[in-house]
Write a structure and sequence with these properties.
Distance between the termini: 159 Å
Radius of gyration: 63 Å
CATH architecture of the largest domain: 2-Layer Sandwich
CATH topology of the largest domain: Beta-Lactamase
Structural class: alpha+beta
Number of domains: 4
Largest sheet: 5 strands, antiparallel
Strand order of the largest sheet: 2-1-5-4-3
Number of strands: 20
Length: about 600
C-alpha cells in the first residue's frame, strides 16, 4: 500500500495516490518537491482540464477533467512522458512545451489537433494556457497546461461560416437567377409575338407590352392605369367579367376567345389565356395575367370558309350534285353530302359502301370494266376522273345513269392520296337523248323517203346588207332530184347554179325580215322541167335560215297551166305533210336550233 499524499476526496484522488509513482522518474509522492505537490493539489481541485509536465522527462500528471481529453489513454497516461501520451500531436504540441520549459507563459486558441478517441482519430480544437513551474530552488522544473476543448464551438462556428457561405452563395445565385429571370421576363414581355397585360384585382391594367397595345389599337399611356373592360367589346364584357370572377374564386386559369374594340370601331378577335398571380406568402391571387394572341385573320378565314361551304352546299343541292371522296389508304369511296344518300338509295345510318359492295351490288355488270379502267387511268396519269355508267339504286333497285367527275390529289412524291369529285344523276337526260335519237331517226327516214324536196339554207348578205345568195346547210335526196343540184350541203346557190334568179334571194330576205312563211309556185331556171313550190319558215325576226319544200310539175311546156292544175294537189299534199310533221316538229326545231344562232 502506498502512502497517500493527497486527500482522497474523489475516486480520481484515490487513483492518483495508488499509482506506482516509484516506477516513474518522479518517485514516490512523498519525495516530490513541495512546489510540485502544491501545484498538483491545486490542479486536482480544478474543474478545468489541467496537466503538469515535470522534470526533464516531462512526466505527465493531470486532473479528472483532463481525462475527457485522454479518452482510452487514461489511466495509462499517468506518470508517462508527454511525448509518449500524445505522439499523434507532438509535432505541434512539442514546440509549445519547449517554450514553457524555457520560461515563457503564453496561450494559444483553437488549435486543431487530431485526437485518438473512441478507436478513431478525429480532428479536435483546443485552447492552451501554458505556464512554467519552478522547483523549491526557484529553477524551472516543469510546466502547467490548462486545456479547454473548443471543438464544439469551433465546429459550430465553422458550420455557421459554411452555412453563411452557402447562404451567400445561394443568395448570390438566386440574385443572379432573379436578375436573369427579370431580364428574360423583360425580353419576353417586350419581344414576344403575344400581347401580355397584367391587371390588379380592380381590373385596371398595371403593365402591358407593345404587342398588347398594338392589338387593342391604343398607345401605352391609354392602356396602363385604365380599366380592362373599357378595351373589350361591349357584347363580350359580361362573359369576360364572369370568367375572371370564377377564376379568382377557384384559382384555375381559363382560355377564351372574344373581341377587343379599337377606338376607330374595328373589332379585333383575340385568343386569351388568363391566369391568377399569387405572390409568395399569399393565399389568394394578388393580380391577373393575360396572354393575348390576335386571331382576327383566322376568324375571318373561318367565316369565309363556312360561307364558302354553305355556298357550295347550296350550289350542289341546286344542281342535284352528290359529292364523294376516295382514299388511297382503304381504296373505298366515301359519301360527303346528303344528296349522295338519296342518289344511291342507301340509308344515312346504313353500312358504308366499300369497293367490293360498289362493284357487286350497285354498278351494272356491263359497266364494271369501264369504271375500273377509268379509275386506273386517273391513278396512273393523274388526269381528271370521268365516268358515265349505270347504277342500281339500293332502295328500289331502279337502274339509274350516273355521271362521275373527280380530281386526284397526290403527296409531295406524286403518290395518290385522295380523290374528290361529284356525281350527277343523268337518267332523265339519257332518256331524253334516246327519245331525240329516235325522233332524229324518224326525221331522217321521213326526209329521205318523202317525194318533196327539202332544204335548210343560210342567207348570205352583201356589203350593202341585201341578201345576195344563200348557202345550203341541209338537203334531202328529193331536193337533189328536183333541182339537179347534187351534194349541195355547204355550198352556195350561185356556186352551183350561177344563173339562179335573184327573186329567190328576195323572197328569202322578205321571209327573214317579216317572220311570215310564204308559198310560191315557179319554174326554176336552173332546171327547165317542172315547177317548184317553196315554203320558207323562219322561226324569229331577222332570221338567217329558212326551211324550203319543193315539188316538181309533170309538164315542162306549160308551167302556168300545170301549176293551175296541180295547185289543189299541192295544197292537199302540203296539208297532209304538215299534219304528219307536227309530232316531230319539236325534235326538228331542236336540231335546227343547234345549227346556228338563227334558230331557237
Amino acid at each position: 500500500m502506498h502512502q497517500s499524499s493527497f486527500p482522497e476526496v474523489s475516486a480520481f484522488h484515490s487513483l492518483l495516490n495508488r499509482t506506482d509513482w516509484a516506477g516513474t522518474p518522479l518517485g514516490e509522492i512523498a519525495g516530490w518537491p513541495s512546489s510540485l505537490r502544491a501545484n498538483t493539489g491545486m490542479m486536482l481541485d480544478s474543474l478545468v482540464p489541467m496537466a503538469i509536465a515535470w522534470g526533464p522527462e516531462r512526466v505527465l500528471i493531470y486532473n479528472e477533467a483532463y481525462t475527457r481529453l485522454l479518452g482510452e489513454k487514461h489511466p495509462w497516461a499517468l506518470g508517462r512522458p508527454v511525448e509518449q501520451v500524445w505522439p499523434e500531436v507532438w509535432s505541434r504540441v512539442g514546440p509549445l512545451v519547449e517554450r514553457a520549459y524555457a520560461g515563457e507563459a503564453f496561450h494559444r486558441e483553437d488549435i486543431e489537433l487530431p485526437i485518438e478517441r473512441g478507436g478513431r482519430c478525429d480532428p479536435a480544437w483546443f485552447s492552451f494556457f501554458y505556464s512554467p513551474l519552478r522547483d523549491d530552488t526557484g529553477a524551472i522544473a516543469g510546466m502547467s497546461s490548462t486545456v479547454i476543448e473548443t471543438t464544439s464551438r469551433v465546429q459550430a462556428e465553422q458550420d455557421v461560416r459554411r452555412l453563411n457561405h452557402t447562404l451567400e452563395e445561394r443568395v448570390e445565385a438566386a440574385t443572379i437567377e432573379l436578375r436573369r429571370s427579370e431580364a428574360h421576363l423583360r425580353s419576353l414581355f417586350g419581344q414576344t409575338a403575344a400581347g401580355i397585360a397584367e391587371t390588379g384585382l380592380d381590373f385596371r391594367v398595371v403593365r402591358a407590352n407593345e404587342k398588347f397595345c398594338a392589338i387593342v389599337g391604343r398607345p401605352l399611356d391609354e392602356v396602363v392605369g385604365h380599366p380592362l373592360d373599357g378595351l373589350i367589346h361591349p357584347d363580350d364584357r359580361r362573359e369576360n367579367t364572369a370568367l375572371i370572377e370564377r377564376m379568382l374564386a377557384s384559382g384555375t386559369p381559363f382560355e377564351v376567345e372574344n373581341r377587343y374594340l379599337r377606338p376607330d370601331g374595328t373589332e379585333v378577335w383575340a385568343a386569351k389565356m388568363v391566369a391568377p398571380i399569387v405572390e409568395p406568402g399569399a393565399t389568394r391571387p394578388t393580380s391577373i395575367l393575360a396572354i393575348v394572341i390576335d386571331i382576327t385573320a383566322r376568324r375571318r378565314a373561318e367565316i369565309s370558309l363556312r360561307a364558302n361551304a354553305e355556298r357550295l352546299r347550296l350550289a350542289t343541292d341546286a344542281a342535284s350534285l352528290g359529292i364523294w371522296s376516295w382514299g388511297a389508304d382503304d381504296e373505298n369511296p366515301t359519301r360527303e353530302n346528303e344528296r349522295l344518300y338519296d342518289m344511291v338509295g342507301i340509308p344515312r345510318d346504313g353500312a358504308p359502301v366499300d369497293t367490293v359492295r360498289l362493284l357487286t351490288e350497285l354498278v351494272h355488270p356491263d359497266d364494271i370494266a369501264p369504271y375500273q379502267a377509268a379509275m386506273a387511268r386517273t391513278l396512273a396519269t393523274g388526269e381528271p376522273f370521268r365516268y358515265e355508267g349505270r347504277f342500281y339504286r339500293a332502295s328500289d333497285h331502279a337502274l339509274r345513269w350516273f355521271e362521275f367527275t373527280g380530281a386526284l390529289h397526290c403527296d409531295d412524291r406524286g403518290r395518290p392520296r385522295r380523290m374528290v369529285g361529284t356525281v350527277l344523276d343523268v337518267t332523265e337526260r339519257k332518256e331524253m337523248d334516246e327519245k331525240l335519237r329516235l325522233r332524229e331517226e324518224r326525221y331522217r327516214t321521213l326526209l329521205t323517203s318523202m317525194d318533196e324536196g327539202f332544204c335548210v339554207v343560210e342567207l348570205v348578205h352583201g356589203a350593202d346588207g341585201t341578201v345576195v345568195d344563200h348557202r345550203f346547210l341541209e338537203a334531202n335526196p328529193a331536193f337533189e332530184r328536183h333541182t339537179g343540184l347534187l351534194d349541195p350541203v355547204g355550198k352556195s346557190a350561185r356556186d352551183m347554179a350561177p344563173s339562179i334568179e335573184q327573186h329567190w334571194n328576195a323572197v328569202s330576205a322578205q321571209v327573214a325580215a317579216s317572220g311570215e312563211p310564204q308559198r310560191m309556185v315557179q319554174q326554176a331556171a336552173a332546171r327547165a322541167a317542172g315547177s317548184t313550190c317553196s315554203l320558207p319558215v323562219p322561226t324569229k325576226p331577222r332570221a338567217t335560215r329558212s326551211r324550203c319544200c319543193f315539188a316538181t310539175s309533170p309538164s315542162k311546156g306549160a308551167p302556168r297551166k300545170n301549176c293551175a292544175r296541180w295547185r289543189p294537189t299541192c295544197r292537199k299534199r302540203t296539208s297532209a305533210r304538215t299534219n304528219s310533221w307536227r309530232p316531230w316538229r319539236t325534235s326538228c326545231a331542236t336540231r335546227w336550233r343547234r345549227s346556228g344562232p338563227g334558230w331557237t
